[in-house]
Amino acid sequence: MNWLVETNICPGLFYGTPAQDGFLIRLRTPGGWLNSQQGRAIATLLERWQRTVQITNRANLQIRGVQESPTLADFQTLQKLGLAASNPSIDHLRNIMGSPTAGIDSQELIDTRQLIKELDKFIQNHPSIAQLSPKFSIGIDGGGTVGLGTRSRIAWEHRYNEIQLSAVALNNQVNNQQNNQVNLTSCVYFRLALGGDKQLYDTNVLIEPKNCLSVVTVLVKVYLDYVKQNPFIAGGKNKKKPRMKTLANRLGSGKISRTS
Questions:
Q1: Is residue 83 very low, low, confident or very high in pLDDT (cuts 50, 70, 90)?
Q2: How far is 157 from 164, CA to CA, in rounded Å?
Q3: Which terminus in the chain has less CB density within 10 A, N or C?
Q4: What residues does 141 pair with on adjacent strands?
Q5: What's the longest Cα–Cα distance across the chain?
Q6: What is the pLDDT of residues 205-219, one digit of tens each?
Q7: What does the CA dihedral 63, 157, 196, 138 come to, rounded to 10 degrees?
Q8: What is the distance in angstroms between the CA of the first residue and the CA of the last residue of the chain?
């Protein structure tokens, strides 16, 4: 087998995760989006390997029972099509989770697709993020029909993201001095929550959409600094990288809120 990166605890593309029926490969699709060109490339691989594809609850594409590694040309094609990270060392990180109806849902407060693209670009251009736990994850909820995080009707879905941004609409009072009236205008913000221990902790921080990337950048920096100072925690027989919930428990949500 000719893999490019050493095997990680979480399945990825650039290494094969051993399983009973062969190797497990996982493709990240930020936001869960695929275009026709990407679909054809995946279908070509599946036909060659005589495999089928599974869709995970994070909108990853998962291929099981693979008996041979992708060729260098396969890796390059998937990278060119946006189905693989340009830096293999960060490709194993959890997918950015978004609503499957983003951009087409008349109920949503804000279209989250551009923000998801910006966050994925940030992750791909910061190789130091590879030092974080592979379970590092971000969820973006635009307030539409399909709820993510705490808006989901299924309680066990609340735990999936370490950083959760959920759109909320708030009414602001605007004084109109010309006619001496007070008008109410609705503004959309993102509410920040941090995940851990199978639930999300609300930080009570409201973020303007244009500032979301900056806030996530600061959170990642604080998280990276913590991991550098505390590289491993005990986890049964193995040592695991600290999760963001460990940082939140250590610092307290109040201090993280002030940092954000």
A1: very high
A2: 12
A3: N
A4: 166
A5: 75
A6: 999 999 999 999 999
A7: 60
A8: 44
Beta bridge partners of 193: 164, 202
**How far from 176 is each of 154, 183, 186, 206, CA to CA, in Å?**
44, 7, 15, 25
Q: Which of 58, 89, 120 is the last residue of a domain?
A: 89
Q: Which of 1-5, 22-26, 43-47, 212-216 has the lowest mean pLDDT?
A: 1-5
| Interatomic CA distance for residues 245 and 227, integer angstroms | 12
99, 73: one domain: no
Residues 118 and 142 in one domain: yes
Radius of gyration of the chain from its Cα atoms, rounded to whole angstroms = 20
pTM: 0.84
